[in-house]
Amino acid sequence: NHKMDNEEERKNSTEEAGSSMNHQPPSPSSPSAASNSGQKWISNFMAGASPPKFVSLEEIMHAANAIFFMPLAHEIAVDKNFQLQKLEPEENSIQKKVKEIMHKAFWNILAEQLAEDPPRYDQALVLLREIRE
């Protein structure tokens, strides 16, 4: 008896679930029946809202940067004659002097470390890393 009740419940639930898949358009002779069953058919296929997704500040900044550089990327892709010009600082500018001092300091440190006994390769590894990048 209990087994028969379970089979009936399963049959009823299967019929209800299959009703939206086996839906046939209503006959044009009954307009009210057509609109009601059509609404039921549509509501069976509507998905619920997805839960809100929280976005980190880092993701927002990444998207903002991508949008900011998009016109430049487009210009580079479309314009065959597009060229970037290397910015050379003026002869006696502070920018040029700082650059020269930094280069000399880097190479002096590299030479000192390699001249030590035993040689240290810290600065040489930094140089190789920068070259690779």
Sum up the structure in keywords.
133 residues; mainly alpha; 0% strand; Tcp11
Report what the structure shows:
The protein has a domain of 76 residues. It is built from five helices and no strands. By secondary structure, the chain is mostly helical. The chain starts with a helix and ends with a helix. About 6% of the residues have low confidence.
Summarize the structure.
With 133 residues, the chain is mostly helical.
Q: Indicate the percent of residues in helices.
A: 55-70%
Low-confidence stretches: 16-23
C-alpha termini separation? 77 Å
The total beta strand count reads 0
| N-to-C SSE string, H for helix and E for strand | HHHHH
Mass-distribution shape = elongated
Quaternary structure: single chain
Q: What class, by secondary structure content?
A: mainly alpha
Overall pLDDT, averaged?
76
Strand content: under 5%
Note the total helix count: 5
Mind describing the biggest β-sheet? none
Please state the CA-atom Rg, rounded to the nearest Å.
36 Å
Topology (elements, then pairings):
Elements: H1 2-19, H2 31-44, H3 57-78, H4 94-115, H5 122-132
